[in-house]
Amino acid sequence: MMAMKKTLEQEPGEIEMLLPWHAAGTLAVRDAKRVEEALACDAELGRQYAAIREEYTATIGLNESLGAPSAHAMAKLFTAIDSEPARKPSISSRISAGISGFFASLSPRTLAWSASLGGLALVLQAGVIGAVLVKNEQPGTFQTASLSTDRPVTRSLGPEAPRALVRFAPDASVSDITKLLATYQASIIDAHGDMFRLQFGNRAMSKDDVAGLMNRLKSEKIINLAVAAQ
Amino acid sequence: MQVLYGRHHIRVFRFGVRLVRDEQVAEDLISEVFLDVWRQAGKFEGRSAVSTWLLAITRFKALSALRRRKDVELDDEAANAIEDASDDPEVSVQKKDTSQALRNCLSALSSEHREIVDLVYYHEKSVEEVAEIVGIPENTVKTRLFYARKKLAELLKAAGVERGWP
Question: Is there a single domain that holds both residue B78 and residue B129?
Answer without folding.
Answer: yes
